[in-house]
UniProtKB/TrEMBL annotation:
Membrane topology: Multi-pass membrane protein
Purpose of the protein: Structural component of specialized membrane microdomains known as tetraspanin-enriched microdomains (TERMs), which act as platforms for receptor clustering and signaling. Participates thereby in diverse biological functions such as cell signal transduction, adhesion, migration and protein trafficking. Regulates neuronal differentiation in response to NGF by facilitating NGF-mediated activation of NTRK1/TRKA receptor tyrosine kinase and subsequent downstream signaling pathways. Plays a role in the inhibition of TNFalpha-induced apoptosis.
UniProt lineage: Eukaryota, Metazoa, Chordata, Craniata, Vertebrata
Family in the record: Belongs to the tetraspanin (TM4SF) family.
Protein name, as recorded: Tetraspanin
């Protein structure tokens, strides 16, 4: 290619890099804002987005998850957009490194999720079960999230009804949540054992497996975007040496 064509190609890719990362930056800011909103006023968020109750995000703290993801996207978007605009090799290399680390972490997480499902269940049990015992029936937002999740997904606790043993709810109500007994008014250990309602982890895992094609397609799309972003940033980085 002629010098003019090379320069035109470089300028085009630079502009695309800026626009792409500007979109990431704005998306990160939006997620960060929503995360702060959920943390400050979770009740109104749940009233508006109640249809998302079957999402796996309801098992974890939505607010902190959105804040972390939003902050990461803000950093990535800033490094890519500002680095391309200023033609800074340092910022472009930082952008490449951050995206590469995230890509490796995603691949590792996918491998762990596929190979060590039992380990993931053990880790979640260690994290979520104590929260159910302490906060279910005490924290209104936490209780509402789990009530909606258990009702919509038709599940009980993380593993099963025994997650509520020795919990605040069990001690004060002398029984389990109605969802653990298929919405019967009386829900004691005998009825819960007979109903054998599955835990939310297993139910959500089954939903993920049912929609594995869609989840795999989304994951592949994200991976392709990350690879493209790394390739473009490295192209700009190398072309700056020739300028």
């Amino acid at each position: 290619l002629s010098p003019g064509a090379k320069m035109g190609c470089f300028t085009f890719i630079k502009v695309m890099m800026i626009l792409f990362n500007l979109a990431i930056f704005l998306s990160g800011g939006t997620l960060l804002g929503v995360g702060i909103w959920v943390k400050v006023d979770g009740e109104s968020f749940l009233k508006i987005f109640g249809t998302l109750s079957t999402s796996i995000l309801q098992v974890v703290n939505v607010a902190y998850l959105l804040i972390v993801i939003g902050a990461i996207l803000l950093v990535i978007g800033f490094l890519g957009c500002y680095g391309a605009q200023k033609e800074s090799k340092c910022l472009l290399m930082m952008f490449f490194s951050v995206v590469l680390i995230i890509f490796i972490a995603e691949v590792a997480a996918a491998v762990v999720a596929l190979v060590f499902t039992g380990l993931a269940e053990t880790l979640l049990t260690g994290l979520v079960t104590p929260l159910l015992k302490e906060k279910y029936g005490v924290d209104d937002t936490f209780t509402h999230i789990w009530n909606v999740t258990m009702t919509e997904v038709h599940c009980c606790g993380l593993n099963n009804y025994t997650d509520f043993n020795n919990s605040y709810f069990y001690e004060t109500h002398h029984g389990y949540p109605r969802q653990c007994c298929d919405m019967q008014d009386t829900c004691n250990s005998t009825v819960a054992a007979e109903m054998a309602v599955q835990g939310c982890f297993k139910q959500i895992l089954e939903e993920i497996r049912t929609n594995a094609g869609v989840a795999g397609g989304v994951a592949a799309g994200i991976a392709a975007l990350e690879i493209a972003a790394m390739a473009v940033s490295m192209y700009l980085y190398c072309r700056l040496d020739e300028k």
